[in-house]
Amino acid sequence: MKKLFIVGIGPGSREHMTLKAVEILKKVDTVVGYNYYIDLIRDLIEDKEIISTGMRGEIERCKLAIEAVKNGKDTAIISTGDAGIYGMAGPIYEMAKGIDIEVVPGVTAAFSAASELGAPIMHDFAIISLSDLLTPWELIKSRIEAAAKSDFVISLYNPRSKNRQSQIVEAFEIISKYKDGNTPVGIVRHSGRKGREIKISTVKDIDFEEIDMMTVIIIGNKESFMRDGKIITPRGYDI
Amino acid sequence: MKKLFIVGIGPGSREHMTLKAVEILKKVDTVVGYNYYIDLIRDLIEDKEIISTGMRGEIERCKLAIEAVKNGKDTAIISTGDAGIYGMAGPIYEMAKGIDIEVVPGVTAAFSAASELGAPIMHDFAIISLSDLLTPWELIKSRIEAAAKSDFVISLYNPRSKNRQSQIVEAFEIISKYKDGNTPVGIVRHSGRKGREIKISTVKDIDFEEIDMMTVIIIGNKESFMRDGKIITPRGYDI
User: What is the value of ipTM here, to two decimals?
Assistant: First the structure.
């Protein structure tokens, strides 16, 4: 019986992949993924059957991966970061029946970005995607409000694209109601991979023009502060 | 100039470590950590100077790690999971001045547990620690309430110990006000390492006696369901 591995490849650079993700990609017959993500691991899978499709082809890729397993191939379908958050684990489990599945966890963008910003998370923490393609905007807004009001550190995924420019503005309007304007905000583009750009700003000074779909944002809590170009959120120890 | 690496070793089994975490542990002169976590990587660091202390020795370990760097040793201080959430990154950045620091991200327990439960996270998601040793219980409760009310998938860290038994009961009283009693709950003990135990229950049926400090809990959102022993939270695709 062949198996379908759902593999989180981490943020993109080889060093942040887990040993297991590398091992599985080397072992399977077929690898399925979004073009751009396949390119991040192409040197690992040169001898494999590679099935790649374009943006928004998520469901097609799931179908092709399930089909490959049914055709007798050990198969990996890849997500960047961890496949269990906004990744391929959900749709595969929704669609696949009667095949053996294993999820291989990975380093998600928020933790990769946090490691580059210092220690901005450290405490109770919420991840919210600003993409309203699959989720009602009202629900997303209510989550931003709840997280900001109860002083979570917040990470925003999919913050802004060519066709979604207003969501990030609205998100920060909500956040500004509850978080001080001087709260540190980390903005990392291409976190954990080639082309990385790190910026540190504040809730009141953030420049939305710098933000795109390759950007992850981390907004501190009431205790967060900046020092020597890093964002630090105390855990609460008496230091 | 010597360097201090703050290394997330992932949930514990070697396969879930990143390539970089392994590389750094092999490269440094000195490794500092909690006894129990040092044991998880002892075979990797046999030739190193090892400084380990007991539970609640966090600040002492930070001091010893900073001192080691100042004494001319490349040093790694380890956390399980990712060091940037409830780990050593915060206190190190708070305490260390004038030394070179790098955080190496890792797979945090929620994502390791999620991979073992199926695809329970998938969507907007909050991590909350139930430990009130360093955080007021009223603040923690307000975060549980906010996250449950706005239908986040929730992961609870440090859910219950010998001396903290009431917090998990109160947490589920709050969660029950907003989440249906049949909402799936994943309970994973020793996720991603030897001795792993996976249980799936519901908000109304969860057995607190099964939960300890080695347990991570994931509570679904309104769309989450169980199938074939897995928890699945849809991303929202039309499948």
Answer: 0.97
